[in-house]
Predict the structure.
Amino acid sequence: MTIDWSPFTKIVSESQSFVLTSHMRPDCDAIGSELGLALALRSLGKTVRIINGDGVPPHIGFIDPNHDVLVLGRDVVATDLKCDVHIVVDTSAWGQLGPMADVIRASSVRKVNIDHHVSQDDLGAIVFKDVTSESTGRLIVQAIKAIGVTLTPQMATPLFAAMGTDTGWFRFPSVTAETLAVAAKLVAVGAKPSDIFASLYEQNTLARLLLQGRILTKIKSHLGGRLLTTAITQDDLNAVGAEATDTEDVINRLLSVAKVEAALLFLELGPQETKVSLRSRSTLDVNAVANEFGGGGHKAASGVRYRGPLSEAEPKVIEAMIAAMK
Ligand SMILES: [Mn+2]
């Protein structure tokens, strides 16, 4: 799929000031795409502001060392968003723009949308979309080339992070030869993959790692290893000084075992409240099991807030899972 960037080049040459926006709960592809494009436009003498509905999450703060990303309502007010062009990246959905949706809707200036998602609202924008692209970041690399800007290390680093994170570090089925060719180009101009990886994925606290150890030693196997479950108590959290949020992602480690079809993680929130995370990597619909207990989510990932102690929640939900897997 090839995007014709000539309308974009024309808009850039005709315009002086730009406001770049992306989705709420921004990830590295959102922020990295905004930063890469902002730096490129500024190198042409353009005035560029990045304004989102949400701030940069702390765990990816390293990609915005100069705090270039502004937050509507915190750093800037809606009446101060005058520009010649609005550019929305990494989403095409009004519902994902948060408070920026109203600002862009109300604005009469030209709008540009650069994205790789299948869903498409009518944003009133000229759309530059490639749903076969693994990331918006790679589309920004194309856009930068189209406007005749040479990539710098400052652009390459957030753009490499964008591509790396949207591909699970270059391992998802969306990765193509073109992905790796563009990634190589970014490395050639100064992106440092090992530094970026460490900033993204090697920032655990010791408490979090110790908690993971506790969770992993308590794994129980059911149905001959098709279902793995584990549980964590408030005593476990206190013993290592960890927070409840430190349990995030651990359940996916259970799914890394060969032939596992589903996994459960029980978290004791209080004497009468237990959080249950359900995951499937087979055709099993864990949403249906979660529904039995008043929870829900998706077929492959669901959650339940169980009104009752861990000692009650654990056997009941495991029993329901086993029944669903028989
Ligand atoms: Mn993306």
